[in-house]
Specification:
The protein is α/β, with parallel strands linked by helices. The chain has four helices and 24 strands. Strands 6-9-12-15-18-21-23-24 form an eight-stranded mixed sheet, covered by helices on one side. A six-stranded parallel sheet has the order 7-10-13-16-19-22, with no helix packed on it. A five-stranded mixed sheet has the order 3-4-2-1-5, sandwiched between helices. A hairpin with a 2-residue loop joins strand 3 and strand 4.
């Protein structure tokens, strides 16, 4: 059977890992898409790079291709998700062959599951999320849209994570804790209590990272 051709949006280090997971999942890597016109026409990770504009101009040559999101930044990935879907391209969920998804779990479109990840019973993962290498989404978790769980993140049961939150390398969220939207959790942190929207937390146990006085003043000025 002919493998489906895969285009990875993002010619970057993260894009390489998505491409590798795509190959593991049975796709044929056909190229990368990148917003930088400088990269257009170059070769990256053994495949050609196309600027989005050129891909649209040559769309008739790619009617059988599907797209996976290879962008690590949550806001940029959300933007690309909208761009790809509004243009009518098929956006796929990429699941490395070593990843495990429980039959009762739900994983949204455009999500990527890297090697060694686990999504356990009755967990739900919304569209556009990254479950990076070795991350664990325990039973009954609720993971929002465009979240990034870095390698070796472990979420206990009944954890909630809001949209566009980034949980750093090796961080742990204890069972039942709610982490808000647009949160940044530092590498190695242990989150033991709820985290409000927009905060950055670090340490063991995780605490809010205090801004300098200058940063606080700058933010208040911008708010005016």
């Amino acid at each position: 059977m002919t493998k489906r051709r895969l285009l990875v949006y993002g010619a970057s280090g993260h894009g390489k890992v998505v491409a590798d997971a795509g190959r593991s999942a049975g796709y044929a890597l056909a190229g990368f898409i990148d917003d930088s016109s400088f990269k257009d026409g170059q070769e990256f990770f053994g495949a050609p790079v196309l600027a989005w504009e050129r891909l649209m101009e040559q769309r008739r040559l790619w009617t059988d291709a599907v797209i996976a999101l290879g962008i690590g930044d949550n806001d940029a990935r959300e933007r690309c998700f909208g761009l790809v879907t509004s243009a009518g391209w098929e956006l796929v969920t990429v699941v490395h062959q070593s990843a495990v998804i429980a039959p009762s779990a739900r994983v949204g479109v455009g999500t990527v599951l890297m090697a060694g990840t686990a999504v356990n019973p009755d967990a739900s993962v919304e569209p556009g999320t990254i479950l990076n290498t070795g991350s664990i989404v325990e039973h009954d978790n609720r993971i929002g849209r465009f979240v990034h769980l870095s390698p070796n993140v472990a979420l206990g049961g009944h954890v909630t994570v809001g949209d566009r939150t980034h949980i750093g390398l090796g961080a742990v969220v204890l069972p039942g804790v709610e982490v808000g939207s647009d949160v940044r959790v530092g590498a190695g942190a242990v989150v033991t209590r709820p985290v409000r929207d927009g905060l950055t937390v670090v340490g063991v146990p995780a605490r809010e990272l205090q801004r300098s006085r200058g940063e606080s003043l700058g933010r208040r000025s911008q708010g005016r």
